[in-house]
Amino acid sequence: MAMSSQGATGGKGATPSVNLPEAAIPGASRVASHPVREGDMLSPRRIVPHELSCCRRVLNRADGPVS
Q: What is the structure's pLDDT at 40?
């Protein structure tokens, strides 16, 4: 399994590239602090944006690799 990391570039989001024979690839961006509401208070939380790119074969439910 391969994983794409955009954290080093400082990006907030990206689209990982899927190469044959991969069916999908997850990606993660840089950790950042964001305010999160807890009842009546806002608390800082560390959030990791993540993405998932899928090959059209997965979305179309193909039986096997297309050559």
A: 93
* DSSP line for 8-23: GGT-S---PPP-TT-S
Confidence of residue 29 (pLDDT cuts 50, 70, 90): confident
Kindly report the backbone phi and psi dihedral angles of residue 8, in degrees, each rounded to the nearest multiple of 5, phi listed first: -65, -30
Q: What does the pLDDT read at residue 57?
A: 72
- E strands, the chain, are 4-5, 24-28, 32-38, 41-47, 50-54
Residues forming beta bridges with residue 54, ordered by sequence position: 24
